[in-house]
Amino acid sequence: MAPTPGLQADCEALLRRFQDKDSVRFEDFAAIWRDLKFGTIFHGKMGHLEMSNFTREAFALSWRYFLPPFTFQIRVGALYLLYGLFFSQRCQPKQQIRIALKDWDEVMQFQQDLTNAQHYDAAYVLRKLRLEKAFHFTAMPKPLSYRIKRKMPSTEFKEEFKEPQDRVTKLITSDVLEEMLNVHDHYQKMKCAISAEKSKPDRALDLIKNDFVGDVRSVVLEHQQWLQDRKKSASATRGSVDVTDETEGSSQESEGSERAKALAKIKSKSYSAVAQASKSRRHRQVRLESSDSVLDKKTKKQLKDTGNTKSLKSAGKRSSRAKGGPQPMKQESAPAYLSMPVIAEEEEEGSQSSDAEFPTPKRTSTC
User: Fold this and answer.
1) One cellular component GO annotation, for this chain's record (predicted)?
2) CA distances from 245 to 16, 75, 158, 255, 259 (A)
3) Which helix (H) or strand (E) is 122 found in, with range?
4) Which of 39, 45, 110, 139 gives 20 to 30 Å between its CA and that of 181?
5) Within a domain: residue 204?
């Protein structure tokens, strides 16, 4: 069964706001619950089967945050979340929270920690769930089927909710320090027993410091204080990171618009500037043709051809009148693929040069 979209995001948003409160009081969680209107999560038009599946999925997701390795505050928030979901569900009879037998020891240890730390509101919530028979004890955390392989979807949780791995605290606990102190006292007594003076050991046997256990305890306390300060600084910078992300997003949008405007300006300049060629090389000049000129290309070419023929005829008539008689004009047919006009000045120069080479004979008058 595919996970319900948005369910994990809503639960994590609720737990994140509860974590920002830096408290484990139920009244703070209830205020956030009412602010987000989380009680309406079961509202909507759903059938009985669909409602039951959704309720079980919500319980399973919240139960994962209740177990280690999440922090103490997140686990208390998950307990409150289970309490709210169980009593706001609309299933009849009520769906129960699935819990494996191997996890029950963690629940009992967590209840003992709540009582020792005097968090009585959280301890009351856990006891209330037990009295209402909200837990369904099973052998395995997930349901299994005979000869059926089910690919369970993997869920990724936020790292900020998890308890940081502290190997120093795991290695050196209060029991270990007490045992080290007993061993150190016994070691000092043995040195006194083998020394000449029974009151104090010989200086030759002073191989370790007398306050060795006290130094170890102070180092462990300093390490725990450093972890707490680091956690506080990380939570303080989380809000500033969200603000900087918003400002960076707006600055990136403004930079993108400025870059687009600059590119459009450069493109308009490059297409609007056309180099002017000389008169003799005008046929090589680059011309920018728009879509309108491309559509009217054929009509312009026809008008150009008719204008060229008219200019040639008028030039031939002027030359024949100037010389006193009709002169044969040599016409050359231009190829069809050339669209350049024939220049009239060159034709006139050609006609003059032909007259110079072959002069016309003078007429003699006869009486």
Assistant:
1) nucleoplasm
2) 18, 29, 19, 15, 21
3) helix 120-131
4) 110
5) yes
Are 72 and 104 within one domain?
yes
Kindly state whether residues 124 and 187 are assigned to the same domain. no
Question: Does residue 150 sit within a domain?
Answer: no
User: Rounded to whole angstroms, what are the CA distances from 110 to 68, 81, 90, 205?
Assistant: 10, 16, 29, 46
Which residues contact residue 215 at a Cβ distance below 8 angstroms, ignoring those fewer than 6 apart?
209
Q: Three-class SS of residue 341?
A: coil
- State both tokens at 183: 């061993």
Q: Are residues 139 and 182 in the same domain?
A: no
Preceding amide of 201 cis, omega within 30: no
Print the domain residue range for 182.
Answer: 168-233
DSSP for 246-299, please give it.
HHHHHHHHHHHHHHHHHHHHHHHHHHH--PPPPSTTGGG------HHHHHTHHH
Provide the number of structural domains found in the chain.
Answer: 2
pLDDT digits (tens, 9 = 90+) for 238-260: 656 555 555 565 566 666 677 77
Helix pair 72-88, 26-36: axis angle to 10 deg? 60
The set of residues, in sequence order, having a beta carbon less than 8 Å from that of 275 and lying 6+ positions away, is 285, 286
Within this chain, do residues 60 and 133 fall inside the same structural domain, yes or no?
yes
Residue 135's DSSP bridge partners are 97
Residues 6+ apart with CB under 8 A from 287: 274
pLDDT at residue 118 is higher than 60: yes
**Distance between CA atoms of 40 and 10, rounded to whole angstroms?**
12
Q: Over the stretch 154-204, which tens digit does the pLDDT of each residue have?
A: 566 566 656 666 777 777 788 888 888 888 888 888 888 888 777 777 777
Amino acid at 129: L
**Residues 73, 197 within the same domain:** no
Residue 23 tokens, joined: 């408290």
